[in-house]
Specification:
This protein has twelve helices and eleven strands. It is an alpha/beta fold. The chain has a five-stranded parallel β-sheet with strand order 3-2-7-8-9, with helices on both faces. It has a two-stranded antiparallel sheet with strand order 1-6. The C terminus is likely disordered.
């Protein structure tokens, strides 16, 4: 009798533990990133000491407290963009003119292309964006702790801690962009290069200051192995061009801009998009220009790659 009892007890305990684990996950999203406080304060010091000391002195301890207090002890589905106002005030710094780089559906490419602010300053290259990049976090109602088990997704509630953070950060970033700004879109993205709804459509375009913007340059770049779904003057990009010109902006659009394609080709030098030269002239469409870009021969690519390598050695 006892021999039969122990297996049954063991199975029962396993089932109870499994059920308990499921019950502990209140939300469908990933929980708070482990060591969040250390990462946030560490990124703060990394930014002001190494990446961009020109922003001046910042109190990284106060920045962590402002960040944490935006969502701690609150319903994780009732965090508003304005809750991060103090955090933004403590981390804010000037965005250099002509350096802003907006994007949709190509975050990793943008991070590489911007080169941590050396080439452009995307949102993730500002102090406030750098601190939150690729992290996840949420609190719990009536609790001073972080929820490491799970956090709500956008599908579960729009006003979650991470979504509201990026809405606030995107709005501030757009509001303080100036000069010629660039928008890097993914021409191979399902559903189109210019998604609606989307951060650029809903939080960045509405916050652009027209008197500060001299031109908006759109780059539509296909994935190196991806299909050509969207392009300048067509589909969702045409919708974007029309919206911006209606708002009174000077707009230029280029497909597969060579400066971006060179970066993609560094990892794929033998791909056909990187090896075949094209001398097709750019097509003009009134105030909006389109250059299909095409590709170029290997000699040009190797020469440019050599230049990048020598540049890297110098710096």
């Amino acid at each position: 009798m006892m021999n039969h009892f122990f297996p049954l007890l063991f199975v029962s305990v396993l089932c109870m533990n499994s059920f308990s684990g499921v019950q502990g996950r209140k939300w469908k999203g990933e929980g708070t990133t482990q060591n969040l406080e250390s990462i946030v304060t560490g990124r703060c010091y990394d930014y002001i000491r190494i990446l961009n000391p020109a922003v001046g002195e910042k109190n990284c301890s106060q920045i962590w407290e402002a960040f944490k207090n935006a969502f701690i002890n609150k319903d994780p589905c009732n965090i508003l963009p304005g809750d991060y106002e103090l955090f933004i005030n403590l981390t804010f710094h000037t965005i250099p003119p002509n350096k802003s780089l907006f994007w949709e559906n190509n975050q990793l490419l943008v991070n590489r292309f911007a080169d941590r602010g050396r080439r452009y300053m995307a949102l993730a290259d500002t102090l406030f964006g750098f601190i939150g990049d690729f992290l996840n976090w949420c609190g719990q109602a009536d609790s001073p702790g972080l929820d490491y088990e799970s956090c709500p997704t956008v599908m579960e509630c729009e006003n979650n801690a991470v979504e509201s953070f990026w809405r606030m950060a995107s709005s501030i970033y757009a509001r303080h962009s100036s000069g010629v700004i660039h928008v890097l879109l993914n021409g191979s993205a399902d559903g189109g290069a210019y998604p609606q709804p989307g951060f650029f459509a809903d939080y960045e375009i509405p916050n652009l200051q027209k008197d500060k913007i001299s031109q908006i340059v759109i780059w539509v770049v296909d994935d190196i192995e991806g299909p050509d779904i969207d392009s300048c003057g067509a589909h969702s990009v045409k919708t974007l061009e029309t919206r911006l010109t209606t708002l009174g902006y000077d707009v230029a659009c280029t497909d597969n801009d060579k400066s971006v394609m060179f970066l993609l080709c560094l990892d794929n030098p033998d791909h056909s998009k990187c090896a075949v030269a094209s001398s097709a002239p750019a097509a003009q469409r009134g105030p909006i220009s389109s250059d299909r870009g095409g590709s170029w021969n290997k000699l040009m690519f190797v020469s440019f790659a050599g230049f990048l390598f020598r540049f890297a050695l110098v710096y």
